[in-house]
Amino acid sequence: MLTDIEISRQNKMIPIADVAKKIGIDVDSLELYGKYKAKITLRELNQLQKKAADPKKRGKLILTTAVTPTPAGEGKSTVSIGLGDGLNKIGKKAVIALREPSLGPCFGIKGGACGGGHAQIVPMEDINLHFTGDIHAISIANNLIAALIDNHIKQGNALNIDPRTITWKRCVDLNDRELRNIVVGLGGVADGMPREDHFCITVASELMAIICLAKSISDLKRRIGNITVGKTFDKRPVKFGELKCTGSIAVLLRDAIKPNLVQTLEKNPVFVHGGPFANIAQGTNSINATLCALASGDYVVTEAGFAADLGAEKFMDIKCRIAGISPDVVVIVATVRALKMHGGMAKADLSTPSIAALEKGFENLAVHIENISKFGVPSVVAINRFITDTEEEIDLLKKLCEKKGARAVLCEGWEKGGEGASELAKVVVEVTETEKPNFNYLYESSISLADKIRTIAKSIYRAKDVEFAPNVLKKLRDFEEAGYKELPVCIAKTQNSISHDPKLMGAPKDYIFPVRDVQLYSGAEFVVALAGEIMTMPGLPKLPAALNIDIDDDGNITGLF
Length: 561
What we know:
Blueprint: H1 4-10, H2 16-22, E1 30-32, E2 38-40, H3 42-52, E3 60-66, H4 76-89, E4 94-98, H5 103-106, E5 115-116, E6 119-122, H6 124-128, H7 134-154, E7 170-172, E8 181-184, E9 195-201, H8 206-213, H9 217-225, E10 228-231, E11 237-239, H10 246-252, E12 260-264, E13 269-272, H11 287-296, E14 299-303, H12 308-323, E15 329-334, H13 336-342, H14 355-373, E16 379-384, H15 391-403, E17 407-411, H16 413-416, H17 422-434, H18 449-459, E18 465-468, H19 472-484, E19 489-492, E20 512-521, E21 526-531, E22 550-551, E23 557-558
Parallel strand pairs: 3-14, 3-15, 4-13, 4-14, 7-9, 15-16, 16-17, 18-20, 19-21
Antiparallel strand pairs: 1-2, 2-12, 5-6, 6-12, 8-9, 10-11, 12-13, 20-21, 22-23
Helix pairs in contact: 3-11, 4-17, 7-8, 9-10, 12-14, 13-14, 14-15
């Protein structure tokens, strides 16, 4: 059996200008990064945004999410790509919009974000490794902000910033637990002011969120200027714009704000832009990429990270609220293997048929189906087939989904590409034509920040109540008094459970949901609540993927999926 990288290498790509032509974008509207990658020019981006602003001129939006992740695998990106190819296979003009991979998971444990098997985007190695440099640009811009803050304090501290209150973290796009908590400024007077500092992974940086949510250079500069970096000694919040260096940061991000265009193995267009994790950030690709896709396709397949309790909720309550869009249908990806793990089976036993484990594990999928319905959007379950699945298990899963009011369709995109996802594509089109969404947010902007957190925890996570750590409620009240009450909230928690506890698989309920801290992302315009033991800087596993990756004298990479 061929590996993903072997399948991608056998594929013959076409020039990216030819891919763009399929959706009405000419070569003069592209900034080429070689033959097979391109960015959309700012001029073309502006034109596509104007078109997407008219609901009558934009395509149908299909959001892909999934059941709670397990080591057995779910395949959300693979299904998203297969579905996009499947839609094109049945004669629809479909465009895909995905996130950029982070180097942290690529060299850690999770892997890349290019799909798998015969449902991949290419050039796979380029996309997973550096791509067009967007994430590196965000890292440099983020760390320039940190350097400018410390330099301001060193050079007289005209703004009277209290170094103990600095909330802006440095970042790097790698899993490096040693950098979570550090001390900077050691060495002497010439080396700055000693203080505690912190790193996060780049995809959790507020600048990554800003890139994903800003629609223009002017919007980008406004948001950068509004970033809260700390407080003065008399407790006044300090915004980065007060350092008068906003333009320098925007210059570093000039290209990073432009969506990237690549192709699937079947030569269909894919916008890949922005890479936030859904467990520690908003978890969706950029508004710009989604708007470009909506303006250039009749159907748009996009995804939100991890399961419906994380990525999908944030897509609805953060991205849709800011972008003024909403999905026409949601596809929930599930595998028999993952549901059997939620039903208590060990990973080593998943090849053994078990109706009992599947029925018990279905409780997890049932929660996600219910959660999507709370936003007034119809859902379809995509059963991502594995070779060990039995017909009896698949038939049972379809019947269980029907009882919950969701149609379930077998998807074989991994094995057969667009052809294997054609049936799913037909059902998705039918749903968009026959079921009109009655979209609504989970909460109103006018309620308190604490009540927004409680609403998500109780309604989506099934918690009995929320326990706020000492000082958290005070911080939330301070945010509200500073004018941020209307902001949505972004809860950072484990992706491995609907709850805050990664050990609670299946469908936990009636537990206490602990919020240990909250952070104000005044530039991105949301409030982050950190629950349980979640970290914004991941660590490497005992056997990281980096152990398997290599390159030969001809430049051929091995071990990358």
